Amino acid sequence: MSELEKSNFIQKVIMGNGIIILLLLLMGMIAIFVTGYTTNGKVLIDQISFASSLASILLAIMAMVYAFFQAKESSQQSLQVNSSLEKIDGKIIELVTIKDEISSLRSILEEQSEWINNSTEELENIVIDFKGTTEKNPKENKDELQRKIEDIEAKLNKIQENKKKTEGLINPLLLGENI
User: Fold this and answer.
1) ∠ CA(50), CA(55), CA(56), 5° rounding?
2) Quick check: 173 pLDDT over 60?
């Protein structure tokens, strides 16, 4: 049985008992009045007064118990609301973190795209220079060809290093890790 069901059950029992007690007191007062238990009016009024005082005390006790359970239930609901708000706050923080990671990933991808475009242009220029050098006279330009080949190898090494660096930056973002 959950706390809410227990609380509702207890409230129903208290209300049921209170109604039964009030009915018994009312029946007792009516019985005293009708049967003429006493012929003395003052004693009858005192008995009715006493019965109504008892009924008032019982009603006050029932009201206190009811207020206690209402306060307890309200406190539990407040705790549940606070717990839900904390969960929502956590999710908002996660969303902000994801947004930042996506922004970071976007800037990295833009930088890499720009770098790839620049590298492509550089390689195209090197290929054009290389073709121009080889078309002139391959035997006379052996040193120049060797220099161009070394230049191409250096550019390719730079491209591979940047590729590794990019993979090192992008892979943690894709896996949901922090850089």
Assistant:
1) 95
2) no
